[in-house]
Every structure is written in structure tokens, then in C-alpha cells.
Amino acid sequence: MCFRKLIMDQLLEVLLFLFFPTLVISFSNNHPDTTGLNSFQWRSSRPHNWEGSDPCANWDGITCNQSRVTTIRIHSMGLSGVLSEDIAQLSELEILDLSSNKELTGPLPQSIGNLKKLTKLILVGCNFTGQIPYSIGSLQKLEFLSLNSNMFKGSIPASIGNLSKLTWLDITANYIEGPIPVSTRTSSGLDRLLLCQHFHLGKNNLTGPIPDELFSSEMSLQHLLLDGNKLGGTIPTTLALVPNLSILSMDNTHLTGQIPQELFSLRKLVTVKLKNNTLDGTLDISSSYNKDLKLIDLRSNNITDINDVDEEHDVQILLDNNPACEKNSMYCSGRSASEPDSLYVTEHNNCSPSPCDSNQIPSPNCRCAIPFKGILIFTAIPILDLGNTSRYNDIEKALSKLPPVDSVSLSNPEINNDEYFQVSLSFFPKGKDHFNQTDVLSISETINFDLPGPYRPFYFISESYENYEEVTKESKWSRIGIDIGVAAGVSVIVLLLFVGVYVFFHKRRAGTGSDTLTMNATRFWDATSSSGSVPQLKGTRWFSFTELKKYTNNFSTENEIGSGGYGKVYRGNLPTGEMIAIKRATRGSMQGGIEFKTEIELLSTVHHKNLVRLLGFCLAKGEQMLVYEYVPNGNLKDALSGKSRIRLDWIQRLKVTLDTARGLAYLHELVNPPIIHRDIKSANVLLDNRLNAKVADFGLSKLMGNDEQDHVSTQVKGTMGYLDPEYYMTQQLTEKSDVYSFGVLMLELITARKPIERGVYIVKLVRETMDENKDLYNLHALLDPAIGVGTRLNGFERFVDLAMTCVENQRADRPTMGQVVKEIERISKLVGLNPTDDSRSTSSTYGVSIKVSSSNPYSEESFSMSGGSSAPKIEYC
């Protein structure tokens, strides 16, 4: 049987490789750029036109010149994978644009510096990691370098200063740290980028001071964005030498001292954003001759006075939360812009939409089509009347002029957690109901680099477009030829034959993907162990004991990654290469059949990205095993105790809290019937390779039953210290029992203390210690030092208030998990954490590989593994 399966598996893989190259992007050895293209190691979530042996023959996103690949533009195509050093073989490549493929990850190879003809390197909105290669400084023809919204870390390579033709530098929203490099006798720096018009360096961890040498009168710089860094120091007076500077954004940058008066004399200066610093002294623009200056935002600084502004100046000055407000209130309170109308949606253009097909929606012109969607983010937009819908109309009209676009629908205008203004966009095609690949690429590139307008700088991150305009069979055969078509048809018939045989044997053996267990699984289900009927499964498979034994190398000690009272956990590898974690019960500690069945059924039917995903189970030969996704960072308990060597700061703890709350809210409010977890604790919250949290271990979970019940009468089970006292006394279990446990977990997150430690109960200790009239509620002595004491714990008091509300003795006084999620989202916004998410979404993984400690990440209480989302910076002790 095993030999037959191996032969069939290998045969199917070969046939899929030969006849469906759209699933795995692979290239014929006959083309000179084969090695370089294979370096991408991509996989696509859906098929595309990458057929045949010649990538220069009308392949989507590939442009050639004299049979050599010169352009790779592949936006929003659901690509996943990494780049290898072989990319250097694409020696004629001029443009590489892989934007909005969120599953592209791993570091950029150093060999990218060998692409000597590259003019544009654009990787906006991916998940690339590691340091920006120093070799990028070898790309002497590079004009555009856009690496924003990734996970790059390390410092800015000083070699970028060698890029004498660079006009656009954007590394916004990464984890770049260290100083801004300037030239020395032995190295280059950004001060040498005399042609560069855009320094977009915001939302990183750069440290200062800002070098005086960075600026000169020879620079072409127009936009200088340094907001959201840790630069500190004063504003260099040399900045006033830059003649074309129009937008200066240094919000939240730890700046001190006075603002150089000369700055406001720059003739092209329009916007100055300096809020949330400690700038002081007198604001003096009275001698400025610049009549184009429209905004000076100095909110939350230490400005003590302002000289009277010339009446000829039409400039908006914002000085809220400055001492100057005590002397002159005309620049304080009420002059700031209104909030955006978050409910705004583009109206239909004097027409009535007709019903559309299920995958289409009506455009503003009432034409049914499948829109191309994305988010447009304005990184330094001047303070406008964002409540004025005419502003949105202007954006819609400008974008509707793009050649392949019939109309644009704008919605959800808001200030995001980075304090950038953003809108959601839906583009509708002109004269058809689908966009093609060229249309999508054209829209994205035009928005990011060619679209003029008063609202720059901005960038566009698009969603994956799943419904490209289909190529007709006739045009396809005309490209490939009748002979090849006949051969392909015969091949497909052969392939289908083999697939049918494969599926027949495979289903007889395993039954993967079925809604119920297969015959073999049913046979092994032990109906005598109080397990009742065979569990009903969705998307979960039965594994044989022989399979799991093989995947773990006979359950070897080398693959053992955890142990506890229940049993042991082993690491395993599926034939596909996917890593799994196998929770194997010891014979004396196996769950009862009902509990085992409950966990299998619940995990196979609930799907949320903050709940652990069950891959399968095994019940055979006296064995009880559950198979989960492998996750490298263990559980929250080990992270808080230091056992896993992961150090969580305040923002990361907020993110873990929010993830956990969303998982529970899904169980309570979106599953029918609702599910009560009944064992929420730090050991049952798992952290994936990007520190996203998932709720695990559903062995004690309970269904609420019919809608008329507000509780379930049941024997008290759970973990001491987390137990709801009302449930303990009455044996009446409700969703509010999970809320209580979650409140204890919140206190554990800020103290890193066990719920009961040396006889002291954490809830009682916090309640007796806290003083709402003192800083941090007087809880300094109880806080975990690793949380970041000494830094600003924004939202801390509201976090504690929420936790204490969750642990009220009476369940009627506790909030619902849905209310908890909303409050944590509000707290998250105070620290700049982006809580934008959809708690209704189904389970999904966002694979970003981060190298972790080689020490064992699993504790004795953590047996369930998973994957997740977001993009933290992981720090190890």
C-alpha cells in the first residue's frame, strides 16, 4: 500500500509539473533567463498565463527585448515564496516590480546588486525581511527604490548614496534603525543623492540627531518625511538651504529646541508637520516671504509664543497643547481639521443599478463588473476639511481618468493608526466586466509614480485580483499552434486518467477533504470508549498510525519538542514539506472519547485566524493523537516567563490581547451555536512566527445549545486562578466565564505573574494596589520589567480598567467579548498599533519566516500549533 501510494504521489506530481506549469512558476532550460527566473521560487494562489518554454511569448507581467527579460511587473497576483541569489542571472532586467504580493518573504539576496541595468526596484506592500542589501549601492542606473510596507530591519545602507540617478527613495513602514548615513572620507551617504526628490523614511526606528551635513543647496529634494522615528536633536538649520522643499513631515520624531526661522522662507514650502515633539521657543514666520505656505502643524509641543502673522499669509497654524495657547488662543482649539466622514461611499451617477452576478457589483455608472480594489494611503497630506465630500470627489475624478478605468468608487476614508489619511478604492473596467493583467499593472504603477495632484505623497497597496479577463480558446490555440494543442489535449486525457486512479486509491486510503470520515477512519473510531458516533469533520483528515510514525522518524527523541501530563509533542514533516506538530497522549492520560471527539469536531468546523487550526487526528492501535500546524514560538506563558526567550514589549502585548479577544469573540458571537472555551489561560494562547496569537486546546469547550438558554449547567472544569467565581459557585457556565478568564489573562500580560503565586491571587493583588489618582495606577512594582517601563505606556490605564471590568464577580457586570474587542482596538490606536481587521474572516496564514531561537519553544502545557498575521519585530533575550 505505501509503495503504491508513493508511486502514485510521485506520478501525480510529475504530471502536474508537466501539464499545469501555472501552479508552480517554472521555466524551460532553453531560455537564457531560465536560471534567473527560477530564482524567484514563486507559487501563485491561482493560475496565470505563464505557459510554454518562452517567457517572452506574452507571459503576464513579463516584457522582453531581443529575447531577454527586461521587465517583471507582477502586482497583486497572490504570489508567495522567496528570491534566491540566482536572480543575478537576469542581467538585462531593467524593472522589477512585485508590489502587493503579501506572501513574498525572506531577505533580498546580495546578488541583486549585479543587476546593473535595473532602473526601478519596487517592492511595496510585500513581506520581505532582513537587512536591505549593501550591494544595492552598485545599481548605478537605479532611479526608483520603493521598499515601503515590508519587514526590513537593520540600518540604511550608506551605499545608497552611490545611486547618483536616484529620484525616489521610499522605505516607509519598516523596522529600519540606526542613524541616517551621510558621507565620510571612506563611505557615501544620502547627502550625495542630489537628484533625489523624495526621502520617504517615516514609520521606522531611526535614531538621531538629524545630520546637518544631510542637506545642501544643490539638492532637488521636495518631500522629506521622517515622521514616527526616534531621531531626536534639533532641526538642522541647513534644511533651509534646500530650494525645492515643499513638504516637511517630522511628527513624533523626538525633536527638541527651536525651529529655524529661515525654514519658513523657502519659496516652495507648502506643508510643515511637526506635532508631538518637544520643540520650544517662539514661532516666528513674520519675516517670511513665502506666500504659498498653507500649513504649520505644531500641536503638542512646548512653543511659548508666536509672532503675529502677516495678514497676507493664508496659512493654517495649529498650536493646540502648547504654552502659547495661554497667550494667543486664535491658533488653538477649533482650528484643526474635521475628522473624515468614515461613512462616505461614492454615490451612483444618476442611475439605478440592476442586479449583478454573484461575483460582480454595480459601478458608480451602474455597470456590473468585478472591481480591482486597494487602499490609497496619503503619508503627508495637508490638513484639509476631511469632512467635506468635495475633497473625495476630486480624488475620484482624478483616478477615473486612468485609461482602463470607467469609474472609481471611494469608501471608508479614515485616519489610520500611523496617523495617515487613507481611503479604500474600487476601480471598474471600461467597456468590459473584467480587468486584464496589463490593466491592473497600469493602474497600480500610474497611481504610485505618475499620477499628478495636490495630495502627494501617497502610495497604493492593492488587493489580489482574482478574476482577470479570460483568454479565449481561439487566441490561445493561435499562439500555441494546432499541433501543440492536439498534443496537449491528449496529455490532459492521460492526466485525467491518472488523476482518477490516484484519487480512487487515495480516497480509499485516507479520505482527505471529505465532510465525514472515510471507511478506514470509521473502522478505527472506538465506539466503545464513550465517544459516541463518528465525528463529523470539515477539511480535517484522518492520519494512520503508520503515517505519523513515518513523519516523526518513529517518534524519535530528536523530534520531541514538548511534554507534559497529557503526553508528548513531536515535530513532523509531511511529504509536501509542511511541518506539523503531533500531540500524542500517553495511554494512562488519554482524554475520554467525548472530549477527544469534541476537540476534533470543534476545531474542524470553526475557522478564524486567531484560533488554532487542526489538520487531522489519529485514533488507532490504542493511540490518541491530534495533528496541528507547527508554530515556532510556543505559548504565551513561556514568553512571559522568559522560558522561550521571547521578549514582548507593550505594543506586542496589546496585539496578543487583541488577537486572543477576537478569537473568543468569534466563538461567542459568530458561531452557531456559540462555543464557550472554558479554559482560557496563557498556556492555551499560542504565538506564531510573527507573534500573532491563536487560542488553542478545545478539549473542555462547551456548546451553548438553543437560543433560549443563557447558560449551560455543567460540572466545573478549568484551571485554578482563571476560573469564574460565579461559575464555580453555581455550576452555570456562560460566555462571561470566558470573559473572566480573559481578564485574568490581561493582568498576567502586564505583570508576567501566575494567577496564583505563593498563595496570592493576582486579581486581588491588583485591586488592592491600584490607585486611579496616581501614574500607571500605582502598579509600577507589579509590572513586568520587560514591558517597557520607562517608556510611555499609552493606554495602560484603560487596559487595566478593562481587565478589572472583565473580572467583576457578577457576570452581569462584565462586558461581552465583542465589547472587549472594540475597547482594545481603541486602546491600540493610542499606541499606533493598526487594529484594522475583520474578526469574521476565516482562518488564514500569512507566511513570513523569521529566524527564531534554537532553544525548544514548547512548554509542557503547549500542544497546539498554528500560523497567523501582522508584522512585529521579535526581540530575544
Overview of this protein structure:
This protein is of the alpha/beta class and 877 residues long. Among the domains are: 361-462, 2-Layer Sandwich (Alpha-Beta Plaits), CATH 3.30.70; 510-629, 2-Layer Sandwich (Phosphorylase Kinase, domain 1), CATH 3.30.200.20; 636-876, Transferase(Phosphotransferase), domain 1, CATH 1.10.510.10. Helices cover 22% and strands 19% of the residues. The strands form 11 sheets. The chain has a 12-stranded mixed sheet with strand order 2-3-5-7-9-11-13-15-16-18-20-22, with no helix packed on it. A 7-stranded mixed sheet has the order 1-4-6-8-10-12-14, with no helix packed on it. A hairpin with a 2-residue loop joins strand 2 (62-65) and strand 3. The two termini are 49 Å apart. Mean pLDDT is 77; it is low at 1-7, 9-29, 468-532 and 837-872.
Strand order of the largest sheet: 2-3-5-7-9-11-13-15-16-18-20-22
Question: What is the radius of gyration computed over CA atoms, rounded to a whole number of angstroms?
Answer: 30 Å
The fraction of residues assigned to DSSP E strands is 15-25%
CATH class of the domain at 636-876: Mainly Alpha
Mean pLDDT: 77
Shape: globular
SSE class: alpha/beta
CATH architecture of the domain at 636-876: Orthogonal Bundle
Total count of strands:
44
Give the % helix. Answer: 10-25%
What is the helix tally? 16
In short:
Helices cover 22% and strands 19% of the residues. By secondary structure, the protein is of the alpha/beta class.
List the helices and strands and how they pair.
Layout: H1 2-19, H2 34-38, E1 42-44, E2 62-65, E3 68-73, E4 79-81, E5 95-97, E6 103-107, E7 120-122, E8 127-131, E9 144-146, E10 151-154, E11 168-170, E12 175-178, E13 198-200, E14 205-206, E15 223-225, E16 247-249, E17 256-257, E18 271-273, E19 278-283, E20 295-297, E21 302-306, E22 316-318, E23 361-362, E24 368-369, E25 372-378, H3 389-400, E26 405-415, E27 421-429, H4 437-450, E28 458-462, H5 473-480, H6 482-509, H7 519-524, E29 541-542, H8 545-551, E30 560-563, E31 567-573, E32 579-585, H9 593-605, E33 614-620, E34 623-629, H10 636-641, E35 646-647, H11 650-669, E36 675-676, E37 685-687, E38 693-695, E39 702-703, E40 712-713, H12 725-730, E41 732-733, H13 735-751, E42 756-757, E43 760-761, H14 762-769, H15 796-806, H16 817-830, E44 875-876
Parallel strand pairs: 3-5, 4-6, 5-7, 6-8, 7-9, 8-10, 9-11, 10-12, 11-13, 12-14, 13-15, 15-16, 16-18, 17-19, 18-20, 19-21, 20-22, 29-33
Antiparallel strand pairs: 1-4, 2-3, 23-24, 25-27, 25-28, 26-27, 30-31, 31-32, 32-34, 33-34, 35-44, 36-39, 37-38, 40-41, 42-43
Helix pairs in contact: 1-6, 11-13, 11-16, 13-15, 15-16
